Amino acid sequence: MAFLKRSPWLLHYDASSCNGCDIEVLACLTPLYDVERFGIINTGNPKHADILVITGGINELNRDIVRNIYEQMPEPKVVVAVGICATSGGIFRECYNIVGGVDKVIPVDVYVPGCAARPESIIDGIVTALGILEEKRRTMADRTHAKEEIRKGAEAGS
Amino acid sequence: METLLFLILFPAVIAVGMLLANQKKVRFAMVTAAAVVIAAASVLLLAVYGMQDLILFAIPSEPVSRILVIIELGLAAYIAYLGLRFRNYLAIALIAVQTALIVAFEFLYAGDLHPVNNLFIDQFSVIMALIIGIIGSLIAVYALRYMETYHTEHPEVRNRQRFFFFVIFLFIAAMFGLVFSNNLQWIFFFWEVTTISSFLLIGYSETDEATRNAFRALTMNLLGGIAFAAALIYLAAVDPAGRILELDQLLASGEAIALIPAVLIGFAGITKAALMPFSTWLLGAMVAPTPVSALLHSSTMVKAGVYILVRFAPVYAGTLAGVSIAMVGAVTFLVASAIAISQSDAKSVLAYSTVANLGLIAACAGVGTPMLVWAAILLIIFHAISKSLLFLSVGTVEQRIHSRDIEDMEGLIVRMPKMAVMMFIGIAGMFLAPFGMLISKWAAIEGFVQAPYGLAFVAILAYGGAVTVFFWAKWMGKLVTVARYRTVVEDGFRQERWVPLYTLTTLVAATVLLFPLISSTLIEPYVFSIYGTTARLSQANIAIMALMLFLLLILPISFLLFRKSAKHLPPYMSGRTTTPDMQFLGSMGVAREMTTRNYYLTAYFGEKRLLPVGTALCTGLVLASWLLAGVAA
Amino acid sequence: MNGLLGALLFILLAPLLGGLVAGVDRILTARMQGRVGPPLLQPFYDVGKLFEKENVVVTTAQNFYVLAYLAFIVVSGALFFAGGDLLLVIFAFTLAHVFLVLGAYSVHSPYSHIGAERELIQIMAYEPMIILAAVGLYMVTGSFFTGEIAASTVPVILYLPGVFLGFLTVLTIKLRKSPFDISTSHHAHQEIVKGITTEFSGATLGQIEIAHWYENIFLLGFIYLFFGFNPVLGIAAIAITYFAEIFLDNTTARLRWQAALQSGWAAAAILGILNLAIIGYIMGGA
């Protein structure tokens, strides 16, 4: 079953954004866009989240934190980089303290461009992410299934 | 009758033997053998007398009473000597007053008094004897190893183990005497022996603090003793023939005569059970070695206080004086439970919880309806078992982790798994369904609802119960915290340690299943013999509770389900990378450790804030009980 | 036999009903905020999703405590709908919550630790009122058994208006709604990250959610006891009460734990005890 697509809970992390994209992410929750229509909930806890939404470029201080948060999310999970800074570092790319886009630290699944990214494109990005999430779920289920088969086979053999 | 006399005299003989046993090996053998014999004899008592109602034994009182008085005077002289040595003049004054009362009693009345039936046994006494015999022996055995370790760890304390075990066995003898005596004069004698045993054992370490607390316990208990002695004189003056000195006669004599002595002796019970305003002595008594706390200050001696209150419950029933004694208990229950929230020392928490539960028992006894007496006796049984287990557990843990602060018991489930499981069961026994204490509290609520003035008690019980959940559950939480890095420090304790702990743990669980049996064979007949009606919980509820216990027992099997699955991740630390022992880099790159600490809510439930309130209220209520008894008479 | 049927129906239907109630709750909440809100079946999608996720734990033991929590919530609810003793139901209910608290303690995490402490404060805040409610129902109907209370023809609410209001106060705590959602709260709300549920994820979190559905149905059943004399009125009272709770949730901000404790205890003292004292006086006098 594909409940995952119907109930994506997201975690929003502000890496080193100017807050422009953050405001737009929050705008998605307002009555005008109301992403809860799609079952999307903004959680504050990586252990409850399915989608990691990151705004802003990664800097030297928060690279460990981004990695840590990503690792604490249970599989299957996807990462959405929102705004041009998150995708590539944007205008801060050459700064001494900026590492670059989010994909320098963790694998990114969807890039949402824009400065600031518009709520419509953020929602579009997340809906795209849902497809990837579903795919990942299926591979995960297959893998678990295969593992189970191997284990059973081993048990039967021994 | 032989069993009764044996149970009183045998521990006394052993006590003298303990004084002579100067070798560790001899002491170990003697204590273990004596413990087995005493426990077996109390079970025999159950077999012989458990099925029968009240039986009285006529024993010639004169020679025995004379000997008792001489011993009493000797003890008084000993206390006076100690009072002089430690310059505690209050104790001397009190013992002087009490001795004067006894001497007056002897010279004015004793010659004409001829109480006949001096010993007795009924189901309630059997229950008390089982508690003393079984739990007392277990604690004595436990104390063997405990005291050895205690003296290795405290080289500054003079090794007086022979004296220690002498007092322990003397105390056990006195407790048996107390619950088997029908003659109030004899009860008084044993009462005083328990007071002095407690005094000597609290002061065992001979530090300033121990001595001070020992004297505080002594003076407060002597106050109760004086009231007891006054009751004896009153009774002798009312009935020169002295038959009324027999407990069963007194209880049967009706409210008009019995109420005043009942309130006076009830006051003695209040001091001994450490209800407010006398709760401070029990808190101070926690300086004693832990087996002493387990034996005297939770499972047996303080139970003597509520034992006597429950005995007099039919006299209190329906009187305002009784309600006011019950209120002392109820207020104590609420205030002591609330203060327990603010305590982090495990023994203080146990002490306050003991005070609270004794208060609850007193509340049941004071109102004195059949249902409540039934509940009170259940409370006595279950509390004795769970609380002695908890005290012994804390003692063991303290000797291993060198702290008895609850905060330091974090992760005990990893460090001392067996110990933690036993403590867990002990704590669950104190406040969770379907364990004993909760059954009794439940019965108490149902009892109070139907009793006169019951609503006030129900309200207090509702709040007190809620508060109880808080302080026990947060302690449990500390125990079960799985902190990975701690090493296991459990091994190395000898068998003498574990046997009592295992036995008590089994008892906590077994009593849940056995309680319908205990109730129907012992408690219900006792209540019936007094009131002509009895009380119990409905069969359906008992079945459901057995089902709940069963569910609790099989749930741990689900651990097998979880074993294979699951990826382990460290706890959420706001994205900070943490090492397995919860070290992380804080701001400016400073290494810090994550620690958690329980809430103690001192601003709301602190001792300083609540104790004066409880003391003032209860003092008022004690005085009110006297006034009301005087008016009624 | 009737009791067994009630218990069985509760065990089977309560999750369905509870999930639907939660769905309605979320739609109503959205409407109050001028939004469209999620589909009605959203709570089921959420739980379904949680069971699809990977199982991630801090310590294996945490799963055990949550299972025990779920088990005893079901036991207490089943006992309630089987017509069992109300006090026993309440005690089983407390036992269940203690298990949840222990689960949160077991993980040694700062956030769930705070959540656990706050959950305990909540238990301390609501328990006196719930016990007094049970006692009040006993005083009016003469029985602690829910079966007999529900079947009683006495218009209980007329005797116990204060107790009912007091019960609604602590119901807010129990439903984990503002202003008293201090230990953890619904869907999008956050409190010190996610309070007691911070370290639970995947299927374990799903179990907590299901337990919460069971719990809600049980609590709504409790409201019915005040209106047992007229089933239609009883159903209406449940609907109105729940709507009022949602309204309160959306119009108030979260208060501190002190306020929760004080409100719960004040409700018990003023609304509960006073009401019972008056009843006791009238009934004793009559």
Low-confidence stretches of chain A: none
Largest interface comes to: B-C, 62 and 67 residues
Q: How would you classify the helix and strand content of chain A by structural class?
A: alpha/beta
Number of domains of chain A: 1
Low-confidence stretches of chain C: none
In percent terms, what proportion of residues of chain C is strand? Answer: under 5%
User: Judging from the principal axes of the Cα atoms, what is the shape of chain C?
Assistant: globular
Q: Main beta sheet of chain A: strand number and arrangement?
A: 5 strands, parallel
By secondary-structure content and strand pairing, the structural class of chain C works out as mainly alpha
GO molecular function, one term (chain A): metal ion binding
Protein name (chain A): NADH:ubiquinone oxidoreductase
Family (chain A): Belongs to the complex I 20 kDa subunit family.
Keywords (chain A): 4Fe-4S, Iron, Iron-sulfur, Metal-binding, Ubiquinone
Features:
heterotrimer, A: 158 residues, alpha/beta, Rossmann fold, five-stranded parallel beta sheet, two-stranded antiparallel sheet, 4 helices, 17% strand, C: 286 residues, mainly alpha, 11 helices
Structural commentary:
The complex is a heterotrimer of chains A (158), B (633) and C (286). In chain A, 39% of the residues lie in helices and 17% in strands. Chain A contains four helices and seven strands. Chain B folds into two domains: 1-253, no CATH class; 254-289 and 297-566 and 597-632, no CATH class. Helices cover 74% and strands 3% of the residues of chain B. In chain B, α20 (436-450) runs antiparallel to α21 (454-480). The longest helix of chain B has 37 residues, at 495-531. Chain B starts with a helix and ends with a helix. Chains in contact: A-B, A-C, B-C. Chains B and C meet through α20, α21, α23, α24 and β3 of B and β1, α3, α4, α5 and α11 of C. β3 (567-568) of chain B pairs parallel with β1 (56-57) of chain C.
Describe how the helices and strands are arranged.
The complex is a heterotrimer of chains A (158), B (633) and C (286).
Chain A: E1 9-14, H1 20-27, E2 41-43, E3 51-55, E4 58-59, H2 63-72, E5 78-82, H3 84-88, E6 98-100, E7 110-112, H4 119-157
Parallel strand pairs in A: 1-2, 1-3, 3-5, 5-7
Antiparallel strand pairs in A: 4-6
Chain B: H1 2-20, H2 24-49, E1 55-58, H3 61-85, H4 89-108, E2 117-121, H5 123-153, H6 161-180, H7 184-202, H8 208-238, H9 247-252, H10 255-272, H11 279-284, H12 290-299, H13 301-311, H14 313-316, H15 320-341, H16 346-367, H17 370-401, H18 412-415, H19 417-431, H20 436-450, H21 454-480, H22 495-531, H23 539-554, H24 559-563, E3 567-568, E4 583-585, E5 591-593, H25 602-605, H26 607-632
Antiparallel strand pairs in B: 1-2, 4-5
Helix pairs in contact in B: 1-2, 1-6, 2-5, 3-4, 3-7, 4-8, 5-6, 5-12, 5-17, 5-22, 6-7, 7-8, 8-10, 10-13, 10-15, 10-26, 12-17, 13-16, 13-17, 15-16, 15-21, 15-26, 16-17, 16-21, 17-19, 17-20, 17-22, 19-21, 19-22, 20-21, 22-23
Chain C: H1 2-32, H2 42-52, E1 56-57, H3 61-81, H4 86-106, H5 110-141, H6 146-151, H7 156-159, H8 161-174, H9 202-225, H10 231-251, H11 257-285
